[in-house]
Amino acid sequence: MYKYGVFQGGGVKGIALVGALQVVESRGISFEGVGGASAGAIVAALYAAGFSASEMRLILENIQFDSLLDRSSLPRLALTRTLGLYRGKRFQDWIYKLLAQKNVRFFKDCPKKLRIVATNLTERTLVVLDSNSHPCLEVAEAIRMSMSIPLVFEPVHLGRNLMVDGGVLSNFPLSLFDGNETLGFRLCAKSAPLPFAPEGYRDYLLAIVGAMLDGRDNYDVQTKKLAGLIEIDPGHISSTQFNLNDREKADLYEQGVSAGNRFFVEPANMHRAQQFSVLGATAKIHLNVPAGIDDGTEIRFSISALVRVEVDGQYLLTKGNRIDQFQPVGGVLKTYGAARANLANLGVKADSKIPIDQDSRDDLRVFVPRRSIEAFVQWYLKGSGRESSPWREFNEELIETGILSSGNFRAPAFNYVGRRVEGIRWTNHFQCFEVLIAELFELVPTPKQIDELNALRGRSDLPGIMWANPALIRALGYDAASQRQVTRISDHSSWILDAGIC
Question: What residues act catalytically?
Fold first, then answer.
């Protein structure tokens, strides 16, 4: 079982760790405890506080790392007086505000077990900071210690001790948890060195420190037993390359995603997570069961139908009723009366996390006990006793609202293109385990319908809809060109771009 996650340090290359974590989450794996050094400590802390990999990606896309560097105007004097080019306070304040969004300030506030390593220069030892050793230490301060790259950031005082980057003594602290239950995330550069030499005092110093962090030996990885190891090649990026552009950030993230996918191609790696498969009339669904789930654990299922409406590379999104964000056309499927008694016999209950009203009654948003999941999924795959078309939601969102005309769209055609399944995974928003399933369709428009959709694209008087290109959808509404958040787009909107992935 993958019970714990440990993340290697690597400065700005930590973005790649988030990409690999995204794949792990999509496999239904939920860690009980996480830890790391330096950049790995940042990822671990955000995860332990309740941030998903998708949320982390958006955070990192929206920040310019060099804007967090509060540099002295006299670098040589700073090294003499404070032992670092940068104070690090601006970075610590940024982390503090992020954690506050999840109501986490001290180690004792973390919903999951968190362990961060730092190097105690005074006693020349590696220090593990967690809720047992330092329950009332601010997590942001611990991260600030762990990422204090020597000579780059000022060291931090903890009592009489001087604390610096945990990577000095252990950049990949695999001993934080039981290795037999630990999944490691390692940044191992396989690319050629940079084809240029550092210029100037500051660049020379950063290059020295970057080489120190990048050149860690492989002793721990070779000698310690792990449940699994995801090895990520971050390419030519160095640990201290703080001026990353959007393309370089995206490349790092994709390197992590690729490494995660390669790891789970191996059957042995996948099978360390409990898994079961349910075969229906025309499809099979695989679900991994995280640690800590017994037969009585109730798991939240949300099953929906989404419609891809596309014209010339632009996709139609509608404003959500419950959450102020744009999302694909479509919504949760409904059950029919004949199926209710059968579902009740399986112990299936209506979703208690969202108030039930007239519109949400009979939604396929339910809680299912673990012992009944196979039977429930088997019922779902048969397709009887439930909606199997996106027509109702399409009609309610676009036709009854007058966005599209009933004349042209009286009988729209939908082509089924695939099913997206995510989970079983822990959701901090609802504080439960959850499975998300979406049946994906695409509108097949007639010439008249295409004309009306083109006319709709030219209208600016409809605040309930928007047209978005793939880049804006994947960035969740953040426009890279203007470097600002122009709107809010849901995480699952990208599913209509990847329709056909099951």
Answer: 38, 165
